[in-house]
Amino acid sequence: MAVDLFDTWFDPIETQVRARAREFIEEMIRGELDTALARPRYSRSQMTDNEGRAGIAGHRHGSRTRSLTGTFGPIEIAVPRARLNTQEGKTTEWKSQALRAYQRRTLAADALIASTYLAGTNTRRVRRALAALFGGAVGKDTVSRVWRKVKTDWDNWNARSLADEPIVRLILDGTVVRVRLDRKATSISLLVVIGVREDGQKVVLGIKSMGGESTEAWRTILDDLIKRDLRRPEFLIVDGAPGLDKAIAAVWDGVPVQRCTVHKHRNLLAHAPERLHEEIGTDYNDMIYAATPEEIEIRRKAFIRKWRLKHRAVADSLEEAGNRLFTFTRLPPSQWRSARTTNAIERLHEEFKRRIKTQTVLPSAETAAMLFWALLASGQINMRKVDGWQTLSTKLIDQPIDLAA
User: Fold this and answer.
1) 360: region left, alpha or beta (phi > 0 left; psi from -120 to 50 alpha)
2) Residue 187 burial by CB count (10 A; 0-12/13-18/19+): exposed, middle or buried?
3) How far is CA 396 from the centre of its chain?
């Protein structure tokens, strides 16, 4: 029989730790039963006869062997059994609170399996990676069962109230992932909404898998947030998708909207031949990253005049964005960097796609949304505060950019 690498590596420390783990768990469960019976093993109860008749005590009747896998590896433990007296004069089987019925893994082991999966490892590789630690006790079905436990938390997260969330700003964007529908690889859209709290901390509020980024799709997620008592935001950052613009107008008309400057940059390049891309990028960045609203206004007019003559489609594309491309200039300059773009979501999208690269096609649309959420909820991906959060309470000035070219 072939011997795999590491199979012959004997570690006395690990061996002793696992032996002690077994002893500790068995002692802990025996102590739990001693408390329930109000007496240690082989001892008489200290209760009076009246208390005993009231159904407080009971009796032991042997033990049974249970398999348990934890971060200490797989072990066999002897779990004591007992019958407890009830108020009705009958008896019921004692159940340990520490070791639940049918429990085969500790919560820490389940968390390790789920975290390994979330780190970008498919089910087959999870089994290989954890085989040595768990003694081959982790199979594809185990990973799937652990993932179903995560779904319970996901369902609770989707139903939580948002009434107490001090949200002042929203960032909305979508990304495309491939999932399996009717046994065929299909592209779907993941719509993501990030909220910015009063203290500047970013937090994910909603994730939904939809067929696209239509008005109806965005209304679904926005209506759900409103139904869960999300307060009216003071500022919105969007990717410029027409469906999202219409959905916002229907539910939050009048809220200042910033169109992502990065998305608009890509739009401009799409309207010009490749040989002009560098020049367009330079002119555009000079405008967007100017130091003051006045400078931005001057450079915008210069951009329009130049590109109307050189390649009119580029100028028309910039004008199409209107004032929404420059709403950030109504905020304090310390906030401009975080308010100009939907990069907060773009970075999450990139990290998400990096993690699922080994899977190519996800099992289902719901799995895609749940996996995106789990990466954040498990701490695999962290979000920091927005730039300029100290001035978030400052009201927007009512002086938009002059669009006259």
Assistant:
1) left
2) exposed
3) 31
Q: What is the dihedral of CA 351, 354, 356, 361, to 10 degrees?
A: 120
Determine whether 2 is exposed, middle or buried from the number of CB atoms within 10 Å of its CB (0-12, 13-18, 19+).
Answer: exposed
Provide the edge-to-edge strand list for the sheet that holds 91-93.
Answer: 58-70, 73-85, 91-93
Which residue type occupies 53?
Answer: R
What is d(CA 381, CA 203) in angstroms, rounded to the nearest whole number? 12
Eight-state DSSP code of residue 136: T
d(CA 258, CA 227): 24
Predicted pLDDT at 368: 80
Cα 373 from Cα 366, distance rounded (Å): 11
Decide: 363 and 181 in contact? Cβ < 8 Å. Answer: no
pLDDT in tens, 94-114: 888 888 787 777 766 776 666
Instruction: Compare 82 and 21 and report the one with higher pLDDT.
Output: 82
Cβ atoms of 190 and 217 closer than 8 Å: no
Residue written as tokens 């994730």?
Answer: 207
Cα-Cα end-to-end distance for the chain: 80
H or E element: which one contains 27?
A: helix 12-37
Average pLDDT over the chain, rounded to whole?
83
Residue 210: closest CA among 173, 255, 155? 173
Distance CA 173, CA 206 (A): 11
What is the b/e burial string over 27-48, where b = at least 16 CB atoms within 10 angstroms of the residue's CB? eebbebbeebbebeeeeeeeee
Does position 132 have pLDDT exceeding 50, yes or no? yes
Cα(381)–Cα(359) distance, integer angstroms: 19
